[in-house]
């Protein structure tokens, strides 16, 4: 040990700004810098002699035995630098996401060591947003999180790609909160929800008298997002007649309100998202190629849920906790229910998982969700009768018997309305949907 701590080796470690540790072939830590000791709330005498997986993973076995890509194993095998994304546990025993770079280091004699540099990505509480949080430990999720973190450090426009329901708005909020604009507005809009005739008004606003019935000035989304981030979801739905105007604003930062003559400026970082192939749309003349290159300064693909099925247990647990916050009994998935979820491909991704669990909660009793309560792909073995009003034959704490999926959803929404005293915004938050979507459901189910 004294030989290992020769001045040149300790100096190599101490000059590293990030946590850095030297590890032998038996996973034993032989030296660590101050940043490493501070990160894990241990002094050097405590760290030296422990195994790396004891300190950072709180695990009695190396990480490869838990199914992770182990930098120690790879560096000693290949003699080459190896980089991975891992979940570590900080000084408070909370999970945190970190990028690990393992370097082969030649010590005195024929001794070889792993020099491990640790770069913080995010704590678990940094993944929270207004409605939900990003959750996962799968390789696909961790790699995506690392890409989002790196992108947040840039001012380039970002295009988020991925299937419907993968959590593109959550990713956009994460980027915003990790950027230098975190203390400025984050404004989100779904382009598919704006009528073509209202698109310019939504983005740029209008002056009094700009059109019939216009009695006042209105700020557009670019003004509201000034200094912050504007998130355009479903960017493939931007009307063709608006694409040139949007391109000009992105290139110059200048625009005019409808009916106005003054040139206004807005400093906005744009994040866009789509589940469509914009290059294919450009070839079909449905999307401007120059606009594509403007909004896709950095393009990031978010993994589908079937690419990270190992995250389903943690996602389901977090969703059930949120769904039952409204006063319903806490629910727990049985092993067969969880197995059924893990085998499913989830074409609707995380959004579909939430919807399945929402219905399962309404169907379950005594807080236990079994496989029989998990109905996949929108199919159900129950009779499919749509409700014509507030669901009958139900109680405040019970589930309707012999009901269709639609009736169960209506019953659940009705209970939420009662528990939240009719406050629609709160109910929409609990359901994880927009207030506009909730309003459509209320009209469909005739719930006052």
TrEMBL record:
<dbReference type="InterPro" id="IPR009057">
    <property type="entry name" value="Homeodomain-like_sf"/>
</dbReference>
<dbReference type="GO" id="GO:0006355">
    <property type="term" value="P:regulation of DNA-templated transcription"/>
</dbReference>
<feature type="domain" description="Sigma-54 factor interaction">
    <location>
        <begin position="134"/>
        <end position="362"/>
    </location>
</feature>
<dbReference type="InterPro" id="IPR003593">
    <property type="entry name" value="AAA+_ATPase"/>
</dbReference>
<dbReference type="InterPro" id="IPR058031">
    <property type="entry name" value="AAA_lid_NorR"/>
</dbReference>
<keyword id="KW-0804">Transcription</keyword>
<keyword id="KW-0067">ATP-binding</keyword>
<keyword id="KW-0547">Nucleotide-binding</keyword>
<dbReference type="GO" id="GO:0043565">
    <property type="term" value="F:sequence-specific DNA binding"/>
</dbReference>
<dbReference type="InterPro" id="IPR000014">
    <property type="entry name" value="PAS"/>
</dbReference>
<dbReference type="Pfam" id="PF08448">
    <property type="entry name" value="PAS_4"/>
</dbReference>
<dbReference type="InterPro" id="IPR002197">
    <property type="entry name" value="HTH_Fis"/>
</dbReference>
<dbReference type="Pfam" id="PF02954">
    <property type="entry name" value="HTH_8"/>
</dbReference>
<dbReference type="GO" id="GO:0005524">
    <property type="term" value="F:ATP binding"/>
</dbReference>
<dbReference type="InterPro" id="IPR002078">
    <property type="entry name" value="Sigma_54_int"/>
</dbReference>
<keyword id="KW-0805">Transcription regulation</keyword>
<protein>
    <submittedName>
        <fullName>Response regulator of zinc sigma-54-dependent two-component system</fullName>
    </submittedName>
</protein>
<feature type="compositionally biased region" description="Polar residues">
    <location>
        <begin position="381"/>
        <end position="403"/>
    </location>
</feature>
<dbReference type="Pfam" id="PF00158">
    <property type="entry name" value="Sigma54_activat"/>
</dbReference>
<feature type="region of interest" description="Disordered">
    <location>
        <begin position="379"/>
        <end position="403"/>
    </location>
</feature>
<dbReference type="InterPro" id="IPR025944">
    <property type="entry name" value="Sigma_54_int_dom_CS"/>
</dbReference>
<dbReference type="InterPro" id="IPR035965">
    <property type="entry name" value="PAS-like_dom_sf"/>
</dbReference>
<dbReference type="InterPro" id="IPR027417">
    <property type="entry name" value="P-loop_NTPase"/>
</dbReference>
<dbReference type="InterPro" id="IPR013656">
    <property type="entry name" value="PAS_4"/>
</dbReference>
<dbReference type="Pfam" id="PF25601">
    <property type="entry name" value="AAA_lid_14"/>
</dbReference>
């Amino acid at each position: 040990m004294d030989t290992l701590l020769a001045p040149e080796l300790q100096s190599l470690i101490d000059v590293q700004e990030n946590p850095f540790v030297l590890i032998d072939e038996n996973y034993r830590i032989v030296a660590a810098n101050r940043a490493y000791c501070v990160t894990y709330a241990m002094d050097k005498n405590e760290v030296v002699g422990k195994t790396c997986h004891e300190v950072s993973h709180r695990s009695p076995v190396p990480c490869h035995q838990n199914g992770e890509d182990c930098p120690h194993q790879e560096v000693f095998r290949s003699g080459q630098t190896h980089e991975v994304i891992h979940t570590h546990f900080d000084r408070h025993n909370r999970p945190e996401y970190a990028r690990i770079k393992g370097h082969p280091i030649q010590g005195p004699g024929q001794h070889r060591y792993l020099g491990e540099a640790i770069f913080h990505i995010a704590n678990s509480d940094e993944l929270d947003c207004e409605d939900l949080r990003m959750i996962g430990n799968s390789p696909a999720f961790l790699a995506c999180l690392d890409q989002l973190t790196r992108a947040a450090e840039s001012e380039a426009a970002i295009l988020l790609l991925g299937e419907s329901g993968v959590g593109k708005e959550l990713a956009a909020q994460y980027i915003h909160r990790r950027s230098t604009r975190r203390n400025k507005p984050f404004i989100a809009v779904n382009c598919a929800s704006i009528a073509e005739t209202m698109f310019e008004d939504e983005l740029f606003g209008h002056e009094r008298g700009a059109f019939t019935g216009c009695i006042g000035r209105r700020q557009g989304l670019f003004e509201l997002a000034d200094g912050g981030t504007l998130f355009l979801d479903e960017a493939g739905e931007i009307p063709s007649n608006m694409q040139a105007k949007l391109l000009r604003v992105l290139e110059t930062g200048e625009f005019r309100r409808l009916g106005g003559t003054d040139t206004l400026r807005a400093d906005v970082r744009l994040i866009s998202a789509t589940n469509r192939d914009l290059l294919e749309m450009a070839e079909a003349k449905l999307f401007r190629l120059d606009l594509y290159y403007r909004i896709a300064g950095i393009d990031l693909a978010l993994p589908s849920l079937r690419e990270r099925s190992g995250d389903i247990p943690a996602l389901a647990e977090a969703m059930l906790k949120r769904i039952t916050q409204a006063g319903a009994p806490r629910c727990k998935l049985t092993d067969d229910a969880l197995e059924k979820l893990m085998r499913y491909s989830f074409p609707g991704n995380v959004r579909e998982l939430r919807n399945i669990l929402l219905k399962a909660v309404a169907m379950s009793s005594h807080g236990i969700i079994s496989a029989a309560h998990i109905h996949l792909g929108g199919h159900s073995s129950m009779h499919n009768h749509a409700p014509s009003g507030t669901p009958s034959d139900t109680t405040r704490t019970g589930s309707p018997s012999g009901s269709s999926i639609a009736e169960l959803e209506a019953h659940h929404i009705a209970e939420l309305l009662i528990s939240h005293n009719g406050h629609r915004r709160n109910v929409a938050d609990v359901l994880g949907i927009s207030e506009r979507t909730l309003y459509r459901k209320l009209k469909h189910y005739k719930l006052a």
